[in-house]
Design a protein that fits this description.
CATH architecture of chain B: Orthogonal Bundle
Order of helices and strands of chain B: HHHHHHEEEHHHHEHHHH
CATH topology of chain B: ABC transporter involved in vitamin B12 uptake, BtuC
Order of helices and strands of chain A: EEEHEEHEHHHEHEHEEHH
Number of domains of chain A: 2
CATH class of chain B: Mainly Alpha
Largest interface: A-B, 28 and 17 residues
Structural class of chain B: mainly alpha
Number of helices of chain A: 9
Distance between the termini of chain A: 40 Å
Structural class of chain A: alpha/beta
Number of strands of chain A: 10
Helix content of chain A: 25-40%
Distance between the termini of chain B: 15 Å
CATH class of the largest domain in chain A: Alpha Beta
Radius of gyration of chain B: 19 Å
Largest sheet of chain B: 2 strands, antiparallel
Strand content of chain A: 25-35%
Oligomer: heterodimer
CATH superfamily of the largest domain in chain A: P-loop containing nucleotide triphosphate hydrolases
């Protein structure tokens, strides 16, 4: 079965002054996979996904999504094309209810295909909230939810956007072990309908979830491969442990 | 539960409109005129609140849009002899056009820069109204000609010298504005406006073109303000530069803050309360601005959410 390429970058680079945060990255993401993006601190992971989501403009290079160039598209338009991004630092609307938070995402997704009907909106919101298990907290203000629940709310918002590609930036940071287990189950569930790019520090989570792993070091791709291959790769070990 | 609260919301707003309607039969002459003015100024504050209270954009130049309506209606009626409905339409059209052009420029900035840019535009308009004194008569202003005090509609002649007619025109405009604001705020657009106010970068990442949505809010807000300006010129038959001054921009802000920014009825209540506060205090002392200033400082310190904002927080959480 030939896998379809969902996202593809060519020679993608970004400099901040003299710092080459991301340089000359050629990257392919297959439809339906769970890909983990790992690398030591400062490897350029967040810059790289920001280039994909459109929050940062590249200095050089191109981004293609579903075969179409999106390099010049602003972030909001990429979201409408199906590239969703959940924030590393929890960024929910603290003063609005969990329900309203998800409503904003669902309304955006539904408005892509014409006028938003209230019935469809209610159903989409309920679905996303139920999937992450926050149904009984839907009327609480997002700022009053526990940290773990706020992270789940972020995921619910990502889900309600009905993305083709969901980029999760360090989603398990600050979660308890029990919460992490639930989270992994949730990601697998989401992966049935979407491609996932997971930026993660927690190695057990990465090894457990990822179909394949890309290692970024000093702004460049160091290695690509299955979890087993990456674990055995001497260059990766050197980058993490120091040579 | 939501159905129930929708019923309460519609009921409350209808009750306010009905209360204004019934008030005209009991108000003495002086207050009859005062409330007519309050209703027109409340429309201005309603427009302002849509941008400031809901979208989180603090404009210090909304006097410009009020003045666009005022002069758009006043100058066409005075110099070109346009009929009242045509002059009114010219005023609203001027406000729409001004807010579109200025919105495109001003919305490239945010925060303090946005306040300064809107204020500067407004100053330009104010100074222009003084400079072209041949047409505007500057601070002295223009008094609308007799021809602009009557109009025919559907074969009936209406006279704007009739206080009762003026009152009901003001009420009609207020009611329509209130309904429009309520629909915008409670609909899908209002949800996104509030999201922009709370966290614009996040809203962008939910797939919303926030610039375009802010521009829509800016244009609706500016156009509503110009409706108030055009109505003011035609109902009270006077057009002058002072309406374009910064004081009027600040007043829209104060009315909104007092009543409660980000509540639908707040600006109406705020305009009413502020108007009568000034009215009563100026009966005792010429330094009424000092007293209102102190009242406002106290308000901002102790009730930063305004009258309705505080009521909503404590007792009536369903209030839009």
């Amino acid at each position: 079965m030939a896998a379809v390429t969902l996202l593809h970058t060519k020679g993608l680079s970004r400099r901040f002054g003299g710092l080459k945060a991301v340089q000359n990255v050629d990257f392919d993401l297959k439809q339906g996979e769970i890909r983990a993006l790992i690398g030591p601190n400062g490897a350029g992971k967040t810059t790289f996904v920001s280039l994909l989501s459109g929050r940062i403009v590249p200095t050089e290079g191109h981004v293609f999504f579903e075969g179409e160039e999106v390099t010049g598209d602003p972030a909001w338009r990429r979201v409408r094309k199906g590239i969703a991004y959940t924030f590393q630092i929890t960024s929910v609307y603290a003063k609005l209810t969990a329900y309203e938070n998800v409503a904003l995402a669902a309304q955006s997704a539904l408005s892509r295909s014409g006028a938003v009907r209230k019935k469809d909106l209610d159903r989409a919101i309920a679905e996303a909230i139920e999937k992450v298990g926050l149904s009984d907290r839907a009327r609480m203000k997002a700022g009053e939810l526990s940290y773990g629940h706020q992270r789940l709310l972020e995921v619910a918002m990502g889900l309600a956007l009905r993305p083709k590609l969901l980029m999760l930036d360090e989603p398990t940071q600050g979660l308890s072990d029990a919460e992490i287990d639930n989270f992994c189950a949730l990601v697998r569930d989401i992966a049935r309908n979407a491609t996932i790019l997971l930026i993660e520090h927690n190695m057990p989570v990465v090894m457990q979830l990822a179909d394949s792993i890309t290692v970024l070091n000093a702004g460049e791709i160091l290695a690509n491969g299955t979890p087993a291959e990456i674990r055995a790769n001497p260059a990766v070990q050197a980058a993490y442990l120091g040579s | 539960m939501r159905q129930h609260s929708a019923f309460k919301v519609v009921g409350l707003h209808l009750a306010v409109i009905v209360a204004f309607f019934l008030a005209q039969f009991v108000l003495p002459d002086y207050h009859h005129l005062a409330v007519t003015r309050v209703m027109i100024l409340a429309i201005f504050a309603l427009g302002y609140n849509l941008l400031f209270g809901y979208t989180g954009l603090l404009s210090l130049g909304h006097a410009l849009f009020f003045a666009a309506g005022l002069y758009g209606a006043g100058l066409t009626a005075f110099h070109l002899g346009w009929s009242v409905p045509a002059a009114f339409a010219a005023g609203v059209g001027a406000g729409f056009f001004a807010s579109l052009v200025i919105g495109v420029v001003a919305l490239r900035t945010s925060g303090v820069a946005f306040m300064i840019v809107t204020m500067m535009f407004s100053q330009v308009a104010y100074l222009a109204s003084l400079y072209f004194t041949t047409y505007t008569r500057g601070e002295e202003g223009l008094v609308m000609p007799e021809a602009a005090r009557h109009f025919d509609l559907f074969g009936v002649t209406f006279s704007l010298t009739d206080p009762s007619l003026r009152y009901n025109i003001a009420l009609l405009l207020l009611a329509v504005t209130l309904i429009v604001v309520l629909i915008v705020v409670r609909g899908p657009m209002g949800r996104v406006l509030i999201a922009i106010r709370e966290n614009e970068p996040r809203t962008l990442m939910l797939g919303y073109n926030t610039f375009l949505i802010k521009l829509k809010a800016f244009v609706i807000s500016g156009t509503i303000s110009s409706i108030a300006g055009a109505a003011y010129a035609l109902l009270f038959a006077y057009v002058g530069s002072s309406f374009a001054s910064i004081q009027y921009s600040i007043e829209a802000l104060l009315f909104t803050l007092l009543g409660g920014a980000g509540t639908v009825l707040g600006p109406v209540l705020g305009t009413f309360a502020m108007f009568y506060l000034i009215d009563i205090v100026s009966g005792f002392t010429a330094a009424y601005l000092l007293v209102t200033g102190i009242a406002l400082i106290a308000l901002v310190l102790f009730f930063p959410k305004g009258i309705l904002g505080t009521i909503r927080e404590r007792w009536m959480t369903w209030l839009p």
